[in-house]
Records
---
Amino acid sequence: FFKHRAVDSPGLKDKPKRTQRSGRMVSQLQTLMDEVLSVEAGSLARMSSGAFDMLMLFCFMFIQVFTVVNPLLRNIHIVIGIWWAILFIILLRGEYKRMCKVRVPKETIVGLVRSIISEHEKHNLCHVLWSVSVATLMEVGGPAIEGMLAQEALQSGLLGTVEKAIIVDAFQKRGLSFKTRRQRLVRDFFLSCSGLELTAVKNLVDGGGDVHNLFKMVYTDISSRKVRADIKGHLKAEATKLRSQCPGPHKREGIKVLSDIDDTLFSSGGHIGGCDKTFPHKKVYPGCLELFEVLDQTLHAELPSCNLVFLSARPHLYKSVMEEGSYRLFRSLVLDERRMHTFPTMLPGDRNYSVRGFLASLCLGTKGWRKVGEHKYVTFSNYAELYPEYDFVFFGDNGQGDLLAAQLMASGSEQFGLTSPRELLEKGEQQEEPPNLLAALIHEVLPEEKVLALEKSGDRGPAWKKQQEESGLFFHRSYIGAAIQLYESKSGLISAEQLRYVAASAITDFTEDVMYQSAWQDRWRPYELKLRRDYDEAQMIIKHAGLEQLPAFPNVSELVPRLAELAETAVNMPSDDLVAVEEEQEESALVS
């Protein structure tokens, strides 16, 4: 549960303290689980892949040899049958020995957990749940452990907010599809929560930094429609009460930021499915993460939150094959570079729509991404049903279907006739109240005449853009420009101080990108012009607000030759002198 989480994040700082009993129990459980798993792995699992392949090859060659000489021998089928019977008996004997070996450790594990629950040792139980892999504990202990944690411990009031999230997360990792009993147990956990505790549990489930999240649990893993309806009904009822109790005119618990990935978070470099070639491939756009941080607002800052959500067109295939690359980037930005302020979650696209959209785009251009854009709107609507207490801000680009999705989010789907069963994950279920989209910001990476929108290209122009802005949909070419759009919209989403923070961070990010991507040289010019234009406008706004002026805009034409000179100097320079020169050059460049 804590593998990819920041332990100093809100709600996770107060880990239950270790006692002598809880520490001894954690050690015993870990030893017993390792013993059971090592036995259950079996001899075939411990065998190297090469040895296993040789064994299987020998078996099949044995059969093939006797098949070839079949005309020469009578009753060859009896020999083959005896061979398979011997092999089956060997495997059956190994399985029986395995069951005998793991019976005692499993019973011991169940007894340890039962003792701590029956004696109502809440603190010790919480420390155990924080310290061991609960999903592995369930796998080893079986239904007995699941029942004790989800029924006895829950009904006895031994579980806090984080402990409930730990167990729900463990159930999802164990597998919920077509496991009706587990699905009902998960439902009981959600129904046991109310108000802010329910919001905290939802965010904890979402903030694991892996493919398992609340959206996947409700709409994919839970196959029972009744269980899903019970969970969604409870979430809606509690969110309605919570919004009514929130202070201020907005009546919301916070703001969740939803964003596309390619050409929105980072540049695709014009690779598959992307358009933007003005910025290096896989590099995060300057100021993007800082703007996400500014917009991530939570009324109760002491509670755990996961308000950054990436809405991707990449489909979910098997386990985390497609998503793992993105989550590695997220973990690097959070843990290593410390640039992303929170662990995000990700909502994948539809496999059929994504593949068809890519193939269609080869012939039709951006028109081929229509179904992908419509599906993004459906995914957004279904996600919003899980968090009715929040408002939303959406970021995308105009290279695929994000602009179309943003228009549908801002206007709703009813007037555009999106009512086919494939368009609704809930098989025709319509929302009673549309989610509250505060703003949608679209990164312009294509000319306006090539983009996919609800209106035809001939019907679009300055008046059309003005109409989109009135509905809360803004266009930008850099994230300084996006912050300016939000500030000038008078929506209250961003202040002048926050605008300055985003702009200053964008300048720092851009300077560092130029320094570490010196191979680009003259290719920086298009993006430099876009960023400088928005920088000058932000400078005027900040000056009018009476704030400290932004740092000077970096001169790329001067910065790149300095880096080339440094590289040439480094050829014959001792390592200690090289470090000193690098620090001096970097400081000089940043000051400039």
---
Amino acid sequence: PAAASSTAKAGAPKAAKTGSRASKAKTSKPAAASSTGASLGDDRKALEKKLKQLGFMLPKGASDEELLAMLEGSMANMGSEADEEEAEDASALVISEEALQAHAQASNARDALHVLQALKTSGVTPSAASYEMVIRAVLEGGGPRARVRERLAALTDELLEHHTQATEKGVVVDPETYRAVLRACGYAGRWMEAREILEEFCEAYPPQSGVAAEASASSPNLADFELAMAICREEGAWEAAYFILRLARVHGITAEMSTYRLAAEIFLKAERYDVVLSLLEDSRNQGLGADAVLYEAAISASEVMGAEAWMPVLKQEIVEALSKSDGSEAIATMSCAWPQPTPTWEELRLRDFAAGIRACGRCGDWQQAVAMFEALPARGLSPDSGCSNAAVWALARAGIFDDSLLSLAGQFKQTGLEPDSMTYLSAMLASALKDDFEAVKTFYDEYCESYPRWWDGIPDKSSIDVTHLPPQDAAMATRILVEVMRRHPKLRRMKQGPLTIRTSDEDVERNVDAKGFDSNLKRYVHEYLTQDLKIDANHLAAGVVLIANSEVRRLADETAEALGVRTKRQKKTALLEKAEATAYQSDWEDD
């Protein structure tokens, strides 16, 4: 037996590892015969053939017991080698995942891909967590968009294929693997696959009814459903988010305020205002209290759907809730932060106050909005970009383009905060209303560092291009052009033609409706000019909205009259009228 064991160690190749289970099955009966002292009989030839295949040199006249001992020693040796190899593979996987985590945090896509390829080359099957970290590194590592999309698609397909093969073979997939696959699908933007993985997760591990997000790790919990909804939010798939919300209810998962906040963001962005209001009703029925984010979304939905009577009520509940709250419930009402890191307590509180400020602005109560913003330091909170932009937006929405708005806009540069596009445009409009062209230029130059240009040669050009702007920004840019030209018509040359607002590219194929509009943006800008600003505008030209010179002169005369200043044309007209009056007086005296 000792010689046989040494021979097994020297002669048994590693390639025989794959046949170890079959060998054990075939030799189970001979092993039983050896234990009872019976002869192998006809099985001896098969055993000798098997030993030769394993690389043994069989001694002449070897007894049945010696052959069986040689086989048992070989199987034991191969079993220990298999265990060692499995341990080595597990160790290599752990070390590789640590390296992948470091590369993912550093957004080092190249090294992460190299580690993954080394794992596959060495014969180690990467885990779902490994793929998740590589996908995250590729997504955040930058590079050409086409290449990034191609890599993400290939990695996600490979991960899903491994997952499908494992489930088809009957391999038990643990909950953490399901969650890793779910996050990987989210990083790759595969919301449909994420929904399917969540359904499969629920079938494999039926959720426990009423279990909160932190209470169950062995089955799908509220956090898993919110993660799938957050993936749909990033991809704009509101239908899938609605399906996931209903799936949670079917499985008895109790929704919390975080669920309603997340759902409100999704459906408000998708313009499903009816669903937003139903979410508000459900949360009120459950007694979850007034949440600023949910209520602000409900106020927006009420405004669009013509339910203005609800708006002051909801606004007052938000104000009272924020004034009484000490912030202890902020963590409890945190919505899913994926794919961003988990926000801090202060960030959550500032987000609530930003929603409250916007809610006051939507209701036209800009005084309350400014008061809420100015009260932040007394609550131990430093205003962030969200609250500051919301305060400027509330003033602009109420038509307050004075020194108070410019003061708020000037604080961004002092505090190092980042203004949004509406803050820049509001500051430009306020400066234009004060005839401060230098300030208009300054704000516009800062605006162009983060957003697309729409005015070349400000302010001496009479045309702008708002093709790539959101509708509200396009309307604000149009008003800035109008206010500049109506106050200083001498800046524009009359030979340039009318004021021109381009709303679509020249080479785009247009579908003109019955009223002559070839794009929704043109309709929005035209309605803003004609209905809100009471300006006569022509929309029949392809891709542009035009304001005639005569209309610009009329606006300039109105502005000059309001300011008590006469334009050059008005002075000339007055001189002509005076000359005519003098001539008439002279003729009368002669008569």
---
Amino acid sequence: MLKLTNYALTMALIHRATRVSAVDGVCSNTISSFTGVDCTYANFVANLDVDCNITELFIDDDGAFLAPEAAEAEVAAICEYDAPTQFVEIQGTYRADQRYFAGGGQLVDGDNWDMDTGRIQRFETNMGAKTLIAFPEYIARVQYNEDTGRGLNGYPANMNLETSCDLNTVMCCFTDDSKVDSSFIDNGDATTDVCRHDLHDSPESNHIKEGWSVFPGSETAPHCVGFTWTDGAEELIGNMMYDVSLRNTINKGYREGVPGSPMCGCVEHMPVVEEASCRTATKTNEITYTFNFDIESNDVSASNAVEIEYSDCANADLATQYKANNPSDPEAIGAHLVGADGCADDLEDYLNEEQFLHQGQHSTKYIVPDSSKWSDLVVGEGIHFQPPIIDPIESDTAFRALVNAACQEDDGTTTGTTTDRFCIIRRVCPSCRSESHRDIYYKRKTALPPMGTNSTAGEVYLLDMFMNKWKSYMNNMADGDFELYSTYADALAGTNAWTHCNYDYNGIGFPRDCGPYGYVGNEWNSYTGYHHGYANHHGFYVELP
């Protein structure tokens, strides 16, 4: 049987039933090896041993040779899930990794350090800097993630790169450095202040649905360290994950996380802290991929070899490195890393946002639209709670009537005449983190899509498009269907329109990751299945004619 390792991700891989045909035992041992190119079917075939015939290599349970497309799929699966060293192989089980990332398990609570760390120490000595490591994914998470709207993947809690790691930044925070003789200070590892943590950001670690923790006084100063990457540069993030987590634990004895939060996770799930150190990984030579066939077990396996160098980032501070990587939206990281001595101001803003402190009106939050210019609240959540009319047709009819109410616009001539236009849709969002998203204006430019709930017939429930299903069908900014603005004055004048927009993630509403200058994540609203966005308090209004 073609063995794809116990850690192959998808259920399709688990159920594969292909075998390898080794004619006369000639095609065996190393059957393909290549360096400096990607692990692909084409490169596998180009470097296949002369004694092996690709057309006779893979067979199914009935003994029939696989078609070329099926053989290509088998090799692609091996390249994706077997050639890289799977993260789970370091500790040996998903459960061990799950507990560790949450801040527990044998490495934290065990009573025999040498035995508990022995497997990882052997990996560190023999493979830690000599192999490409895959970012953590687990078979045990695949069905759970699909069922709970976390995507078709096996990412662990608090590290889902598909649905809740929009900033491409992962961080670990350690509070205990007592396991070995050296301390944070001895190792030259900076400590930081913890500001707060929204408990609903990491319920799979703390098992608390809602709540918050603040740390206003003195407490144990943790060492926080992480890594950040740009889209398309994910090749070594598994190695970086290993470096900031398990390597720190076995080499320096760092353990335990901030109470109520995971020990490691994407920054969206971690506590807000002042600062964090930044680490990275680089290859010092090209990766070699090797495919082997075991004639006794009829197993094909793949491995890789590469020299890895772990080091501090070009900018030793994680927030500074993030800003260097993301010049179009550098301030997004500020919601998670608030800077030196930033906790006091962050806590005041946070507690005001949660309505525990009242010290005057915030300049961009808790906006009350002028009732002479804007409709009553159409729909909203949180402090703007207003459910839609139950019947979708009745609800959408009322909403479209507001939008179609013939608001006026100067025709741009010197005559001073006006023309009819669609009325502007406005969302106010006091809980949004980005200033640009606390007050957004949607200006429709083309005809509205047909009304109805039958999407296969091209019908659109327009209000639900803003609430839960922000889509590109007849609603594409690049095609000129609408414009977005951060102020009403800009919307009226047609100046400073937003430049970026994306769509079509079911369950994610307005405005997904649209932004004034580029991608801005997690500022969308959702009334159905997603709750890790920041727009938990928002309301929609429509301009009056």
